[in-house]
Write a structure and sequence with these properties.
By secondary structure, the chain is α/β, with parallel strands linked by helices. It has a single domain, classed as TIM Barrel (Alpha-Beta Barrel), CATH 3.20.20.70. It is 44% helix and 14% strand. It has 13 helices and eight strands. The radius of gyration is 18 Å and the shape is globular. Its main location: plastid. Keywords: Chloroplast, Plastid. Belongs to the ycf23 family.
Length: 279
């Protein structure tokens, strides 16, 4: 595993990557700056922002955190990197989803090749779409590794019913099937893909402050959080929430079973646990 950015390299080595998402379509400067300042005051690893050149320049003017731009447009990505973005994420497929368009693995691979040629000297993350079957997800991940992509991300969907997946998830307790939350498809993908590739995996979509150890147990090197941060009322509350998430990633690094995780979760303050059940 190799990334260009030294801050990312250190976080990946300790499997404590915490991405704070300001909103892949959010170009509201005030909102983004509020979240960025909270991330700056906490132990966030990097910021994931809309691919907007003005936004990138504003963030780079004060933030010490690496800035990641998310897009599926090669021109947007090139312009974002030229404006100072430290890494890129080939993702943000929502634009296609809204139009009923779903890229296949060959199209995503070709897009990745094109963008890698444009920005060959920065770290590149590629999101593996949730709607691909597991065989295609694994195949795409293998191809991306051969291409030289630095790391990948799994995604989830909302209002998911886990029983629709015909998968024997032996590591998961039956209670997980009652959590109709968007993080579950990401968790499933992370677990199976991690068995076949050496690339680091970031798990995102619907994750909250104490989901970090669960994602790590299933093979993730870290998680992305966004919507849970937005719910906090001010910068200090946001920063505290981000730190709670980081601490959960660090605290459970030595746990070897789900029962260990469950035991440790029971020791957390109720103020932290209530976020877990509010889904």
């Amino acid at each position: 595993m190799k990334v260009f950015n030294s801050r990312l390299q250190e976080a990946f080595q300790t499997k404590s990557v915490l991405k704070v998402i300001t909103g892949i379509h959010n170009t509201n400067i005030q909102q983004v700056m509020k979240i960025a300042k909270a991330a700056e005051l906490s132990n966030a690893t990097y910021l994931d922002v809309a691919s907007n050149t003005y936004l990138v320049k504003m963030l780079k003017s004060f933030s010490r955190l690496p800035i990641c731009i998310s897009s599926i447009d090669p021109v947007d990505i090139y312009n974002g990197v030229s404006s100072g973005a430290d890494l890129v994420e080939i993702g943000n497929y929502d634009f296609f989803y809204d139009q009923g368009i779903y890229l296949n693995k060959e199209q995503i691979l070709e897009l990745s090749k094109e963008i890698k040629c444009l920005v060959y000297n920065v770290d590149i993350c590629v999101t593996i779409p949730y709607y691909l079957n597991l065989a295609d997800q694994i195949s795409l991940a293998k191809d991306l590794q051969l291409l030289g992509i630095n790391f990948i991300q799994t995604e989830g969907i909302s209002k998911i019913n886990c029983t629709k997946f015909d998968i024997n998830l032996t590591k998961s307790p039956s209670s997980f099937y009652n959590l109709h939350n968007s993080f579950i498809p990401s968790l499933l993908s992370t677990y199976f893909i991690s068995e076949f590739i050496d690339l680091p995996i970031i798990a995102a979509s619907g994750y909250k402050n104490i989901f970090g150890p669960i994602a790590k147990f299933y093979g993730a090197y870290g998680i992305g959080i966004g919507s849970a941060v937005y719910k906090e009322i001010d910068i200090i509350s946001m920063s505290n929430y981000i730190n709670q998430t980081y601490n959960s990633l660090s605290l459970f690094s030595s746990l070897n079973s789900f029962s260990d995780i469950e035991s440790e979760l029971s020791k957390l303050p109720f103020s932290c646990l209530e976020n877990f059940f509010n889904i």
